[in-house]
Amino acid sequence: MAFNMRATKNPMPTQAPEVRRHNFDEVARGYTEEMAIDEAKRCMQCKNPGCVPGCPVHINIPAFIAKIAQGEFEEAYQIITQSSSLPAVCGRVCPQESQCEKNCLRAKMPVREKDADGKMVVKGLGEAVGIGRLERFVADYHREHVKPVTPEIEKNGHKVAIIGSGPSGLACAYDLAKAGYDVTMFEALHVAGGVLMYGIPEFRLPKAIVQNEIEGLKRMGVTILTDMVIGRVLSIDELMKEYHFEACFVGTGAGLPRFLGIPGENAKGVYSANEFLTRVNLMKAYQEGSHTPIEHAKNVVVVGGGNVAMDACRTPLRLGAKKVTCVYRRSKAELPARKEEVEHAEEEGVVFDLLRNPVEILEDRTGSPSPRSPEFNPNYGCVTGIRVQKQKLGEPDASGRRRPVPVSLEEDPQAIYTIPCDCVIIAIGTSPNPLIKATTPGIETNPHGCLIVNEETNETTKDGVFAGGDAVTGAATVILAMGAGRKAAKAIDEYLQK
Ligand code: FAD
Ligand code: SF4
């Protein structure tokens, strides 16, 4: 096969920024068949491919790309799904630039160009093969062209409970159902899918795609029970003793938001990113007549710099905000969000106020909150601004990133100033909800509230109870959660077959 030696990836077709900032439709439109084949031909089919060890679930990347290059898209899909049960999701949201694509040979090959004297000089390095974009293409092709089938699976008579229906639970359920287990999934919310449904917005990950993956699980015989908060409706002990589940997988994620602990955080118009995004994504607060409405703020400040913060910045724009400012305490180089997400946010008009740390949230205290008072002020207690302090970068901290150090008023009399706003969204991280630990005797957590597991088997400190995903690692990524779910499924199989 002739390789395509172009140094750059096929660009991803996207909605124009000035159009997409006003709608919830998916930003990235996906490759056409021609673009996918052309991109696939950039893969050098390395004998020792760096991309495969870079993928947390070790997809056979050169093999699936070779199939795309030959126009055999369904064969490519079959190769991917040997390792990943959610390719349409991962192709969209995985941080490929720090995983498979980071190790791609094409990203290490020098690009040579003639200089003014006609001499060939190295101009930099090429771009990785668009592995994520190809994965997405193949998954979308399969969904659009191949009729779903109901697989015939022989049941082995063992019952397993999965608690939480995010990517870790979905991946665990998929592998166990495929192996013949009778799997029941318990989800606290009224819809299955975890962060894929309530956190990541429609414009990055259409919900129909997530539901399509969940329908596939149901066809495999998995029972999904929603509105079931385990630890409230039933405990893990009850599931095992009274309902005869022989093993449990806990994939309850890290949905407990952290706050700043500064004055004014209880003002009206201050949200955690989780609450804000859940209201919009899951409860469709943007639709007329939604039972869970949301204030359509005009001037929004988002605190944080990760993927969650980028979603929290881009969502209010689509709800009609005139200005969204992202306040982050380090510099652009340290922003933990995916580069592509930061670029998309900038294109859509999000303003980045970097090296700033909030010190106080201001609220309207004029007049009276009482409607019976002549001084009644309906905006009493509502956010009016956020005071931020400039930062400079000091020595690296435990995370390896340079620590932000406050600039004092002696150094700069303007070091603390106010950004006027009518909404503040706090996106500075989350931890696991303590409910499972509090209601399950024998299950242990570390000081961060994460479930302690055996690294080989993902078994918790309680016999027969396994765990994985954000509940174990703290907030991480979809693919790591999926990898943990699969590892636990293998260990549950070994545990029950003993
Ligand atoms: P979750 O997806 O959190 O699912 C846990 C599920 O368990 C939830 O549905 C919850 O309701 C349920 N649950 C909790 N407690 C109980 C209980 N007691 N009983 C029953 N059910 C319960 N990762 C990426 O790789 N790329 C991205 O671009 C990206 N963007 C993100 C954007 C946002 C806004 C957020 C919040 C996260 C993002 N992540 C991203 C992180 C990624 O989504 C998570 O790492 C991943 O979803 C973790 O999967 P999980 O299965 O561990 O948990
Ligand atoms: Fe292809 Fe890059 Fe993987 Fe090599 S490292 S096989 S070029 S995707």
How do the helices and strands line up, and which of them pair or pack?
Elements: H1 17-20, H2 33-40, H3 51-54, H4 61-69, H5 73-80, H6 87-93, E1 110-114, E2 120-125, H7 131-145, E3 159-163, H8 167-178, E4 182-186, H9 195-198, H10 207-219, E5 223-225, H11 236-241, E6 247-250, E7 256-257, E8 270-272, H12 273-282, E9 299-303, H13 307-318, E10 323-328, H14 339-348, E11 351-354, E12 356-363, E13 383-396, E14 402-406, E15 416-420, E16 423-426, E17 430-431, H15 435-439, E18 465-467, H16 470-473, H17 478-497
Parallel strand pairs: 3-4, 3-6, 4-5, 6-18, 8-16, 9-10, 9-16, 10-11
Antiparallel strand pairs: 1-2, 7-17, 12-13, 13-14, 13-15
Helix pairs in contact: 2-4, 2-7, 4-5, 5-7, 6-7, 8-17, 12-13, 13-14
The site of iron/sulfur cluster (SF4) has 15 residues, from α4.
Features:
498 residues; alpha/beta; five-stranded parallel β-sheet; globular; binds flavin-adenine dinucleotide
Structural class, please?
alpha/beta
Strand adjacency order, main sheet:
5-4-3-6-18
Which stretches are poorly predicted, pLDDT < 50 over at least 5 residues? none
Please state the oligomeric state of the protein chains shown: single chain
Determine the strand fraction and express it as a percent band: 15-25%
* Helical amount: 25-40%
Average pLDDT: 95
Number of alpha- plus pi-helical segments: 17
**Main sheet record:** 5 strands, parallel
User: Which ligands, by name, code or SMILES, are bound?
Assistant: flavin-adenine dinucleotide, iron/sulfur cluster
User: Using only CA atoms, what is the Rg?
Assistant: 25 Å
Question: Could you say which overall geometry the principal axes of the C-alpha atoms support?
Answer: globular
How far apart are the first and last residues' alpha carbons, in Å?
48 Å
How many distinct beta strands?
18
